[in-house]
Amino acid sequence: MTIKVNKNLFYLLFFLFVMGLTMYTMLKGNDIAAILLAISSMKIGYLFLAMLVALLFVILEAVIIWYLMRSLGEPNSILRCAAYSFIGYFYSAITPTAVGGQPMQLYYMRKDGNSLSKSSVILIILALFSKLVLALIGIALLVFCYAPLVYYLKNYMFLFYLGLALNIISVAVLLAAMFIPGIVRQITRSIDGFLTRIHILKFSPERQQKIENFIEGYHSAVNFLMLNKKKVLVVFILTFLQRNCLYVLTYFVYRGFSMSGTSMVTIVLLQAAIYVAVEMMPLPGAQGITELMYYAVFQGVFTNALLTPSLLVTRGLDFYFLVMISLVVVIAKPLLYQKNAISLKRVKNT
What we know:
With 350 residues, the protein is mostly helical. It is 83% helix and 0% strand. The protein starts with a helix and ends with a helix.
C-alpha cells in the first residue's frame, strides 16, 4: 500500500512539474493583463456551453460504464459509475500515456463489490472503443481532409502520422488479444522468456499469471461483443459522441470570443487532429505538446491577440477543470468508504 501511495505521489508531483513548466512556457513574454482582459470578455453563454461539454465528456463514459454493467448483470447507480469515470480521468491525467486510469477504476469497482471478471471486461471494452473511435477519426481525416490537414498542421504533420499509427497498433493489439489469444499468449511468453534469459527481468510466476489473466480477460470480452451486437453499437455511438465533446468545446470557445469566419466543422476537425496526434504521448495529460500543437494549428483561426487566451480557456476547461473535479472525487471516495464502515460498525454494536 505504501509503495502504491508513493508511486501516486510521484506521478502527481511529476504532473504538477509538467503543468508548471507548460504554464510558464505559455505565459512567457505575454501581457498577462491583456490575456485576463480578453478572457473576461468571453460571452457567458458560450463559456457555459464549453464547461457543459467538458463535463459531458466524463459523464458519457459514466453512462457507458452504467450501460455495460447493467448488460452484464452488475447494476450500479449512475452516480457510482460517474465516480469511476472521474477517478479514471484523474489517474489517466497524472500518469504517462494514461496508464493509471483503468487499474484504479478496477480497484474501486472491486472495492464496491463488483465482479472482477465483469469489471475487467467493461474496462477492456471501454479501452477498445476509445482507441477504435480515435483511430477511425484519424483515418477519416487523412482520407477526406488531407489537404487542409497538411495546411493547418504544417511541421506537426509527422506527429499526426505517429499518433495515428500508435492508435492503430493499440487497436490491433487489443483485437488480437480478443480474437487470437493463443498467438498473443505465445508471443508474450516468448518475450517474457527472452527478457528473463538476458537478465532484464527476473523469473516471476506472478507476472506470468498476470499475463494469463490479461489475455483471458480480453477473450472474455469477445464473448460479450459477439453475443451483444446491438449493445456494442450503442457503446460505439456513445463513445463517438463522448470523443467529440472535447472537439466541439473549442468551437464554443471560438464563438465565445465573438469570432466568426471559420466553420464549426473545420474547428472540430482540427481539434480532433490534435487529439489523434497527442493521445499516446508519454507525458501526463499530453501536457506541453498539446499546447504547442494548438499554437501551430489554430494560429490561422484565432487572431494573435486571442490565440493564447483561447488556448488557456480551452485547455483550462477540457483538461485542468476536469482534473480538479476528478481530484475532489478521488479524495471523497475513500472518505465515503470510511463513513460507511463507521456506520456499519455502529449498527453491529447496537
